[in-house]
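Data card: per-record layout.
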Amino acid sequence: MLERLKIFEYLAPYNFVLFDHNPEQLKVSRRATGGGRGQPTTSTSGSGVGGATGNLGVNGRGADPTTMNIQKARLVGAEVKPMCDRLLGWASPAQGIMGAALNALLGPIGARSPILLVQWGPPLMGFTFTATLTQVDIQYIRVSALGIPTHAQVGLTLKEEPSLLSMTNPTSGGRPGRSRHVMVADETLMSVATTTFGTPSAWRAIADINDIDDPNSLRPGDIVYLPAREELKSLVEASR
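The structure for this 240-residue chain is written out next.
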């Protein structure tokens, strides 16, 4: 279970922001259009996930994309500035030297905001949301004598973006492209990794994406999500 809010790039999961303190408020909204039926607005407050299901990001017919608004999520420590810069970069990829180079290369298309995956809580009962970042508000609460931010309060607005890489429901329990596996008797993560990927060492990647701290705690009937081969390759390369 992912107990802390984490946001990472869909195509580059090693580029992530992991918040030290969860949002004080999270609001999810969708507006029905054209006479269709949309999901009702959901709002949760406090440090827990409760109050909403994990079925976010599923575009219903006759409904606008879902919007997620996160308020007062906090970053603390030496990595505050790099994490905040990453959030700002996701919202404005056309800024800076790299953005200018992409604009020159791509012309009218320009540099586009990356697809992000927002995860908070267990796969089926928490939040999994594929989106782009449309607004970032950062308040630096503490700055050291050297001018280094050590505490920031962050507000984010994200807009749902259905994945173009897979028809898998992005909120079915993990990143699109992953497959769902139900554990059976005498199965372990190593045996699943060997059967699926041909090597028992892939069990670490499976454990990581499912936030499994103790592989021995798995029981028959438990659900785990298996990465696509491209994602597995990225995870292995990032861990080296």
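Known properties of this structure: The CA atoms of residues 125 and 169 lie 15 Å apart. The mean pLDDT is 77.

See the next section for split statistics.
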